[in-house]
Design brief:
This protein is an alpha+beta fold and 131 residues long. It has one domain (2-98). 47% of the residues lie in helices and 13% in strands. It is built from five helices and three strands, in the order E-E-H-H-H-E-H-H. The model has no long low-confidence stretch (mean pLDDT 76).
């Protein structure tokens, strides 16, 4: 799932990409439950279901075999944004799911300062690393 495209200090397009797209299975000591989870995951990631999810919700498919460009007329605005982000000069992971509250707060406070040119890319990265 792509979030946004920002220009960097060298006027290159930077796409911020979620670090955790897709589905997860938790660990379980129950073999039957684990097998059921795997079957469910395979079902959810099937081309048929991923295509249906794309058509109904606009959620970008986690299955790379689903070519959303072939599904013309479905969520065109989302697809256009997705296609543009995929062509970015630089693609960076945005590990928001790994960040604690303090890091997310720091990012939210500083992203607009960075976009306004008040702080550098290095300063925002250093700020996040220090948390």
């Amino acid at each position: 799932m792509e979030y946004a495209m920002f220009p960097d200090k060298n006027n290159k397009d930077v796409a911020m990409v979620s670090a955790y797209p897709g589905y997860f299975i938790g660990s379980s000591s129950d073999t039957k439950q684990k097998e059921a989870c795997i079957r469910f995951l395979k079902y959810m990631l099937s081309e048929k279901v991923q295509t249906k999810i794309w058509k109904k919700t606009g959620q970008i498919p986690s299955n790379p075999n689903v070519n959303i460009a072939d599904l013309s007329g479905q969520n065109d605005v989302i697809y256009e944004a997705y296609a543009k982000l995929k062509k970015a000069d630089i693609i960076r992971e945005l590990p928001g799911n790994d960040w604690d509250f303090e890091q997310r707060e720091d990012f939210e406070a500083n992203i607009f300062r960075y976009l306004s040119g008040d702080i550098s890319e290095d300063e925002i990265v250093d700020s996040l690393k220090s948390k």
